[in-house]
Amino acid sequence: MRRAFRRKYLTLRLKRMTITLLYPTAATCPRCEKRFRHVPLDVAAPRLCIDCNRDVELLISGICAVCGRKTAHAMCQECAKGVHSFFVARAYASYDGTTEHLIKALKYQEDLRVLPILQSWICEAYAAHYGYRDTIALVPVPMSIEKEQSRGFNLSFELARAVARRFRLPIIEPLERVAQDKSQTVMHGRERRSAMEHVFRCADDARSLVCRHPYLLIVDDVLTTGGTADACARRLFEVGAHSVEVLTIAR
């Protein structure tokens, strides 16, 4: 299934590159569809226009030391209560405007033009927050088999793949999704955490994988309340993880 997605994705990039070379004015911003005046340097990699790029709010400073959300204090009120199971979470940008639009366009409309943009963002976030680490292993958040077959790809895995290739890091998959949880879009913090409690389980080889790679970085697209990341972290600690941190595109 993942090989089929890679073939589809690479075919689309080749098609886009050919069209852009033959018809330079056909290159458009995947957010607002504004046409570019000049051919991009990398014609196979979509880019945002200046206005849409400015709309992306980077999460670099003024963030919680634990969960990475925007805050005026060193730690947000929620993290001060010690509610999270993971150690630290970091994200590339706030989940609104252009960032939210691109993630939803890829996940729900299968706009594959967006994928290389999100992959470059997750790599930038890793370099900014974890680039000095060379003993860490990446853990993509798993989808249920049914959901991955329906969508055709797991965005978390595609993001982890990009980071792994650029920084030469291993990807391990010690977790399995028992069942696809209900939509969390209308749930709040405690309700989300409760809903996620029994969604994940450890794979048969989880303990041996974690024994070889005890320092783990969960990779996902969005961190909202942290319910998904917390549930994954708890399972990973159960099989011997020494440290579990989180990296996402948006927060």
Automatic annotation (TrEMBL):
<dbReference type="InterPro" id="IPR029057">
    <property type="entry name" value="PRTase-like"/>
</dbReference>
<dbReference type="InterPro" id="IPR000836">
    <property type="entry name" value="PRTase_dom"/>
</dbReference>
<dbReference type="InterPro" id="IPR051910">
    <property type="entry name" value="ComF/GntX_DNA_util-trans"/>
</dbReference>
<protein>
    <recommendedName>
        <fullName>Phosphoribosyltransferase domain-containing protein</fullName>
    </recommendedName>
</protein>
<comment type="similarity">
    <text>Belongs to the ComF/GntX family.</text>
</comment>
